[in-house]
Design goal:
Elements lengths: L1 E5 L3 H11 L7 E5 L2 H11 L3 E5 L7 H6 L7 E6 L5 H6 L4 E4 L4 H17 L17 E6 L2 E6 L5 E5 L2 E5 L6 E2 L3 H8 L3 E5 L2 E4 L3 E4 L5 E3 L4 E2 L6 H9 L2
Parallel strand pairs: 1-2, 1-3, 3-4, 4-5
Antiparallel strand pairs: 6-7, 8-9, 8-12, 9-10, 11-12, 13-14, 14-15
Length: 238
Amino acid sequence: MRVLIVDDERPARDKLRRMLVQEQGICAIEEARDGVEALEKVASFAPDAIFLDVQMPEVSGLEVAASLPQPAPLVVFATAFDEYAVPAFDANAIDYLLKPFDATRLQRAMQRLRERLAARPTQAERPPGLPGAPLQQLLVTERGGTRVVPVAEIQWLETADNYVALHTSQGAPLLRQTLTDLLDSLGGDFVRCHRRAAVRLSLVEKIDSQGWLVLRSGALVPLGRNNKAAIVEALAHR
């Protein structure tokens, strides 16, 4: 099991690491100091499980959980405040640890993680093409902080060098990710309409005389020649 510890307080991370190294079956442990770093570590470290603090500056643990790529690592929330228990389980947490927790309580959480991981299908056993649950929000790092962008507010997507512009009614923040990888995480609501763009199909009002997709908001989205037939077919059956 590969485990990621996410907590903005160094003593809390150190204590949990000391407890986890006593557990059997853990092959690697990484740490993140906040929600933004946690999502970066999820991408680079690929943990099986995350011990996730709820209260953190800028991006909370609950927001991190809602932004995990699918299939998501298993989440155990850890916090000093019991009022977060219900929201934690609403976020599909495997367990909830109330600080300060002891070795017995941690062992129970570890047992739940082992059981759930053992029950998960391997990549070879997983049916081909079976998607995970789509993301509900995206976290965009900007100067001075981090913006939470609900996926429901995104109208269309456009590549911009090493970023993807998330076009919403409130602007187009840039997410550092490839369009192909992002589309894999968003489910079937978005359809590739150009080599550099994808559109939320339900918002397309028409194809204009110049060959552009016109959204209900009035936004114009490029439509590639190689994508037109698939878009027309999708619009006819939406």
